[in-house]
Amino acid sequence: MARIVSTVLVVALLAGTAAAFALTEGLKLQPAPISGVSVPRKVLSPVCGCPTASATVSFRLRESDVLDVTAVDAGGAVVATIVRGRRFPAGRVELEFTGRDDDGLVLPEAEYRPRVHLRGERVTIVMPNPIRVDVTPPVVEEWDVRPRVFSPDGDGRADRVTVRYRLSEEARGLLYVNGVRRGETRARRTENELPWFGRADRRALPAGSYELTLSARDPAGNLARRSDPVPVRIRYVALGRDRIEVVAGASFAVRVSSDAQVVRWRLGRRSGEAGPGTLVVRAPAQKGRYTLVVTANGYSARAAVFVREPRP
To answer: Which of 144, 211, 214, 237 could pair covalently with 296 via S-S, beta carbons 3.0-4.6 A apart?
Structure first.
């Protein structure tokens, strides 16, 4: 009799174990209630006023359900409600995490994870996708511009200025010319350089003085405070004076500043070529007002030449 009872107990235990195993395996075969989890933006700044002020939380819902979606900190505590008690149909769900708590206050700088609770399924899932809140802008620690005078005329000689800088964190450098953004680096680095070719809307700017300032944008979208302005000058060709008085037939000199190897000049019926530096030209034999035109790489500078008769 004892042997029969023992056999029955063994059979019952085996049957129960088999049933539990079958149930477990059956649960494993059931599809997950959510899938295709995606958080494209890993860092955001709620205060930047830019496209990175929020992050999209996206996933696919297997069946229609009522969801509570929150953000939790590293300890699992709920810090913000993204959506509460809202029914979503089966399919793709996209929600925005703004980096703010339920009172609209900016969350402390840290990493947070989306947590989804499905009321119908009675399942809570913490996504493995951290989202970092960052509200600290980068700082321009050092920067310099060289050269301060250049000529963007396309001859390969002093055609650009180069801005070299160092930032407090990895970010993209932003260059402003007279308050308008004219350049941005592709790479985010703490140290980098940024060229400016003296152009706006693909056209070379006219000769003159311009103010350059530097800022930076970090991955969260925070902007650095702009640096103090540095003046630079675009110079194609310039003359040392714009008014010249000379006796008829006498020679005179004028300083020519240019990055070109050769400049061309014209005064009355005479013309010629010379290198930049001191240009010596003979005045016309007849008194009158003439114009000295000096050209370099398609750009010109002019000076009025007043020729008078020799004194008796």
So the answer is: 237
Domain annotation for the chain: domains and CATH numbers: 32-133 (2.60.40.4070), 140-234 (2.60.40.10), 237-308 (2.60.40.10)
The answer on pLDDT for 60 being more than 90 is yes
For the stretch 61-87, pLDDT in tens is 999 999 999 999 999 999 999 999 999
* Predicted confidence (pLDDT) per residue in 155-212, tens digit: 989 999 999 999 999 999 999 999 999 999 999 999 999 999 999 988 899 999 999 9
Q: What long-range pairs does 160-164 form, CB within 8 A, spacing at least 24?
A: 160/195, 160/196, 160/197, 160/198, 161/195, 161/196, 161/198, 161/212, 161/232, 162/193, 162/194, 162/195, 162/196, 163/193, 163/194, 163/195, 163/196, 163/212, 163/214, 164/191, 164/192, 164/193
Rounded CA separation 85/69 (Å): 9
Amino acid letter for position 168: S
Identify the pLDDT of residue 8: 42
Residue 167 contacts residue 141 (beta carbons within 8 Å): yes
- What's at 236, amino acid-wise? Y
